[in-house]
């Protein structure tokens, strides 16, 4: 079963320097029937204006992934880490018992990134930070593993039974994914226009995928995707 969520129907926020699209309930956008999908709690499509950003603020008991779509994201935290990530790079924080961090666009160009929060499978783990700079070509024409709770599956290890994958394909190209019937997936059309199992997706749209074995993603225009494979919600 495929349920398409159009970006026009998602939550929105505009703070002047920050322009956000909320896939799930977040901040001022509250929708009680859209709190999460499996262990996926937050996906915010955030756009920072030049020199915009958040100062030091706390998180706890959440696995947080930032996937940079365009521009540069600068991170600092109370563990002493500092980094600047660019298009296609990934930042990861296991907030665990508590972490403080800031995130900024320190450039003269706009920044777009996906801020992803995943519910952890254990409470109050030791806080941890990491980032990974993937070669862009490693996601072209295939699903590239980014993060997973399964040891050895992806460069980034998270505290949850979930696989995070990204893929890039050209017009009229197709990506296939074999989804375990006991699991479900959340797919986002980050850029471009395409279809998932015949259902149309515009840039910014998403799809909840349940009770489906073969997932077929076809690009109508050059396309960029992220997918989350996770344990199915209990009936």
TrEMBL record:
Q: Which UniProt keywords apply?
A: Iron, Metal-binding
Cofactor binding mode and count: Binds 1 Fe cation per subunit.
One annotated GO molecular function is: metal ion binding
Q: Which InterPro entries match?
A: Pirin, Pirin_N_dom, Quercetinase_C, RmlC-like_jellyroll, RmlC_Cupin_sf
Q: Which SUPFAM superfamilies does the record match to this protein?
A: RmlC-like cupins
* Highest taxon in the source lineage: Bacteria
Cofactor(s) required for function per UniProt = Fe cation
Q: Which sites bind Fe cation?
A: 57, 59, 101, 103
Segments forming domain Quercetin 2,3-dioxygenase C-terminal cupin? 146-230
Domain named Pirin N-terminal: residues:
12-118
Which family is this protein grouped under? Belongs to the pirin family.
Q: What is the recorded name of this protein?
A: Pirin family protein
Species this chain originates from: Eggerthella lenta
Q: What is the lineage of its organism?
A: Bacteria, Bacillati, Actinomycetota, Coriobacteriia, Eggerthellales
């Amino acid at each position: 079963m495929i349920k398409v969520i159009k970006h026009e129907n998602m939550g929105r926020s505009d703070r002047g320097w920050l322009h956000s699209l909320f896939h799930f309930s977040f901040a001022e956008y509250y929708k009680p029937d859209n709190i999460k999908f499996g262990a996926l709690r937050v996906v915010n499509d955030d756009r920072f204006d030049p020199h915009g950003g958040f100062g030091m603020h706390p998180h706890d008991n959440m696995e947080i992934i930032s996937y940079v779509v365009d521009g540069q994201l600068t991170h600092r935290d109370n563990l002493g880490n500092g980094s600047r990530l660019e298009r296609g790079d990934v930042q990861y924080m296991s907030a665990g018992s508590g972490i403080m961090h800031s995130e900024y666009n320190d450039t003269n160009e706009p920044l777009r990134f996906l801020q992803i929060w995943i519910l952890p499978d254990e409470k109050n783990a030791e806080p941890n930070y990491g980032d990974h700079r993937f070669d862009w070509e490693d996601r072209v024409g295939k699903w590239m593993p980014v993060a997973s709770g399964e040891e050895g599956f992806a460069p980034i290890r998270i505290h949850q039974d979930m696989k995070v994958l990204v893929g890039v394909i050209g017009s009229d190209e197709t990506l296939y994914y074999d989804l375990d019937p006991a699991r479900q997936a959340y797919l986002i059309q980050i850029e471009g226009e395409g279809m998932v199992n015949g259902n149309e997706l515009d840039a910014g749209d998403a799809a909840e995928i349940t009770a489906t074995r073969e997932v077929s993603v076809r690009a109508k225009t050059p396309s960029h995707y992220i997918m989350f494979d996770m344990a199915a919600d209990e009936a």
